[in-house]
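I'll show a typical protein example:
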Amino acid sequence: MMDVDVWVRGAAGAVTQKVSGVAGQAGAWTDDDVRTLLTEMLLSLDRAKNPGGDAPEVSLRGFSWIVSPDAGGVLVHLEMQLGTVSAGPFAIAEARLTEMIARVIAGPAEAGRVH
């Protein structure tokens, strides 16, 4: 379990939510772990906006993101029209996590056409 801070646009303040499913040691994360982190962060934003609603399907498109240094490691921030969600700090190199997020968001490499 980890905490994420969620601010819904138009709300008076931020709330902290717990998310699960993300491996504990950021230095050992795989692309799948990063995908899970991003998905859980986006779902926490939806839960803050629509408490008690059904979880929507998540697409890793349509949001801005940044990895920023912090005294305890790095933070991940996601922003979209709905609001903002932040997680961390994580003990992983900023450049490595930035590269992993970029790769995960880009999706799988497209296979060539076979006729």
Remarks:
- The chain has one domain: 2-106.
- The mean pLDDT is 90.
